[in-house]
Write a structure and sequence with these properties.
Residues 221-287 form the DUF4143 domain. This is AAA domain protein. It comes from Candidatus Argoarchaeum ethanivorans. The protein contains 13 helices and five strands. The chain is α/β, with parallel strands linked by helices. The chain folds into three domains: 3-156, Rossmann fold; 161-196; 208-276. Strands 2-3-4-1-5 form a five-stranded parallel sheet, with helices on both faces.
C-alpha cells in the first residue's frame, strides 16, 4: 500500500473515532485498567459485535486522551495490507500525523497475517499495544509463537445481565430480594434478557435481521473463508444444528453419522472452529476415567 492511501485511512478512522458513541461503561474496564499499568501486550478477544471496538474508545477516553495511534483492520481498504511491507509505512504515517506516541490500538488485527512480528519488534522498544480480535484460535497460535510471556488476554462478551439492567435503567435497589415489586421487575427483565441476549446493537435497535446477519458473518468470514472449508453447506447445517440444540448432549460420532461425514476428525475440527469464533461453547461430560 502507498503512504498516501494509508494516511487517508488513518485520518478518516481517527475522525470517525471522535464521533463514536462511548456506549455503556463495561464491567471489565476496571480489570483492563490494571493491565494497562504493566508493559505487556493486551489482547481483547471476543465474538463479533460484542462491543470490543466500543471498549477501545472507553479505554482511550479514560486513560489516553489523544496520546495514541489507532487503526481498525476491518476496513475493506486494508484488504491488501501486508505485515512484511506495510507496517513500517504505517508507522511512518503515524509519526508524520501525530508525532511520537508510545501506545498503539489495533482493532481486529487477526485480519493481517504476521502482525505479531511487528508488535514484538515495537514492544521491545517500550511501546504499549492494546489489540482486539474475533478468533481465539488464530490469536493464541500467533501469540504462542512470538509473544510468549509478553502478553495478557481478556475476553469480551455481549452484555451481562447486570449490564443489561443498567442499560434499561433497572438496577435493583438495596434489599430488593425482600420487596415483591422489585423481585417481579428483575424477573421480568431476566426473561427478556434470556430471550434477547446481550448483543449491544440488537438491544439498541431490536431488529432481528441484525442477529441473522451477525451469524452469517461469523460463519462466512470468520470460519468458511479463514479455514478454507469447501463443504460449506454441510458446515452451515452442523452450525445450525448445534445452535438449535444448545444445552443438549452431543457427540462427535453422532454428528458424523447425522451429516454423513467420513471422519470424526472433520467434526472435531468444525466444532473447534465454531468455538474459536465464540459462537458456541462445549462442556465436556465429567468422567472419573478422564473420558468424555
Amino acid at each position: 500500500m502507498n503512504k498516501r492511501q494509508l494516511k487517508e485511512i488513518v485520518v478518516q478512522q481517527r475522525e470517525e473515532l471522535k464521533r463514536k458513541d462511548r456506549g455503556l461503561k463495561r464491567e471489565n474496564l476496571e480489570e483492563i485498567g490494571r493491565y494497562l499499568k504493566i508493559p505487556h501486550v493486551l489482547i481483547i478477544s471476543g465474538v463479533r459485535r460484542s462491543g470490543k471496538s466500543t471498549l477501545l474508545t472507553q479505554i482511550m477516553s479514560e486513560w489516553y486522551d489523544c496520546q495514541f495511534y489507532y487503526l481498525n483492520f476491518e476496513d475493506e481498504r486494508l484488504i491488501s495490507f501486508s505485515a512484511e511491507e506495510d507496517f513500517d509505512i504505517l508507522y511512518q504515517v503515524f509519526l508524520e500525523l501525530y508525532g511520537e506516541q508510545k501506545t498503539f490500538f489495533f482493532d481486529e488485527i487477526q485480519n493481517v497475517s504476521g502482525w505479531e512480528r511487528f508488535v514484538r519488534r515495537m514492544y521491545e522498544r517500550d511501546n504499549k499495544f492494546v489489540i482486539t480480535g474475533s478468533n481465539a484460535r488464530f490469536l493464541s497460535s500467533e501469540l504462542a509463537t512470538h509473544l510468549t510471556g509478553r502478553h495478557l488476554m481478556t475476553e469480551m462478551y455481549p452484555f451481562s445481565f447486570r449490564e443489561f439492567l443498567r442499560l434499561n435503567k433497572a438496577e435493583p435497589g438495596e434489599n430488593f430480594e425482600y420487596i415483591a415489586e422489585e423481585r417481579a421487575k428483575i424477573s421480568k427483565h431476566l426473561s427478556q434478557y434470556i430471550e434477547d441476549g446481550g448483543f449491544p446493537e440488537y438491544l439498541r435497535y431490536g431488529e432481528k435481521e441484525i442477529l441473522h446477519r451477525l451469524f452469517g458473518d461469523i460463519i462466512y468470514r470468520d470460519i468458511l473463508v479463514r479455514y478454507g472449508i469447501r463443504e460449506t453447506k454441510t458446515f452451515q447445517e452442523i452450525a445450525n444444528y448445534l445452535m438449535a440444540n444448545v444445552s443438549n448432549t452431543v457427540s462427535y460420532n453422532r454428528l458424523k453419522n447425522i451429516f454423513n461425514l467420513g471422519s470424526v476428525n472433520t467434526v472435531k475440527n468444525y466444532a473447534e472452529y465454531l468455538e474459536s469464533s465464540f459462537l458456541i461453547f462445549f462442556v465436556d461430560r465429567f468422567s472419573y476415567s478422564g473420558g468424555v
